[in-house]
Amino acid sequence: MHVLMALTAAATSPVQASAAMERPDLPRTGPATMDVAGVKLGMSAAEARSALARAGYVVERADETQDFEQEVASEVNVRLKGVGLLRGKSRGVSKIVAHGPGREYLTIDFAQWPAGSLAAVVYLSVPQDRQPSEAFRAQVAARYGKATLQPGGYEPRWCTAGDADCSIMSSPSLPNLSVSFPTQSLWLRYGEGTDRQRRQAVKVAVDAKMPPARRSAF
User: Fold this and answer.
1) What does each C-alpha distance from 26 to 112, 120, 174 come to in angstroms?
2) Are 95 and 63 spatial neighbours (Cβ–Cβ below 8 Å)?
3) Which secondary structure element, helix H or strand E, spans residue 98, and what is its range?
4) Residues of the signal sequence (predicted)?
5) What number of H helices and E strands is found in the chain?
6) Which run of H or of E encompasses 95?
């Protein structure tokens, strides 16, 4: 499928699309290479399940949603008839919920791309009665190194190099990792820019099937 062929420099994401792109073109350094319990950004649902199993996690549930093709078909129907469309069983995965061996709670939110349901956000919460705060801090530092931003030392953030939107007061465009020491939680996200490009990919695919009207009946 080459639904991203029409993406141009007008796309708002710093991550550039190409004619052959079926998935986000994530950086090869920084948070895009990090993992949470073995799960990395861009992993398929099957890959994420395998990683969780290796880390000792048990999947509690996997929620379904429209996959990319179904989403495009639904948007085409909106243009034609003003209502969405969902034919048959949803083929995409929207979220996986799992629990770890130490009562860790982990969720993975997936984004729908031509290549399938790919991990976009990984969230982990560690019970404070299970791991003392100083041990959690030490594990974070050993695993992820020095943070890019450390406001007050309580909620550090690891940014992708060159992401001007990665600050405490704004949403990063590129992959990033955030940690909350008070709640012993962390979030690995693929960034607002990548999400904008996914929405642009949907629009390109819809336009190809049902071009916007140039005239109305008046």
Assistant:
1) 15, 11, 8
2) yes
3) strand 92-99
4) 1-19
5) 4, 7
6) strand 92-99
The total of other beta-carbon atoms located within 10 Å of residue 134's CB is 9
Biggest distance spanned by C-alpha atoms of the chain:
69
Judge contact between 202 and 68, C-beta under 8 A. yes
- Best CA proximity match to 159, nearest among 140, 138, 173: 173
Alpha-helix runs per DSSP H in the chain: 45-54, 68-81, 133-144, 192-209
3-state secondary structure of 81: helix
Q: How far apart are CA 129 and CA 118, in angstroms?
A: 33
Phi, psi at residue 122, to the nearest 5°? -120, 125
**Ranges of the chain whose pLDDT falls below 70:** 1-21, 86-87
Write down the pTM of the prediction: 0.86
Which whole-number Å values give the CA distances from 83 to 74, 76, 209, in the listed order? 8, 9, 16
